[in-house]
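Annex B. Sample input.
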Amino acid sequence: MKGESWHCDCNVLGHGPLKAQAPRMECPLETGEFQELYANVFKVGFNVAEFLVDFGRGFADTEARFHLRLITTPTDAKRLLALLARSIQDYEQEFGVLPEDPER
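Annex B, continued. Sample output.
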């Protein structure tokens, strides 16, 4: 797709005391085994050990339904946040600034 960009953080051992030992890994974009899901509704929860991110769909004429839960560590959730922030920054540089509170 024209204008498609990917950012990757595949450093699976790159936190805590193992950070210095962790090799940087390549992130191949093989999508043959992916299950794709459109999501426009999100729910986030956390406890001391995990972040839980629920993904769902909702439209003006239907009730929102959640279809997928991602469970990750707090450290990896923070890495995901940084990756999303970088991707949004690059998106806005290429396509224009997104509204802070987009109308549905």
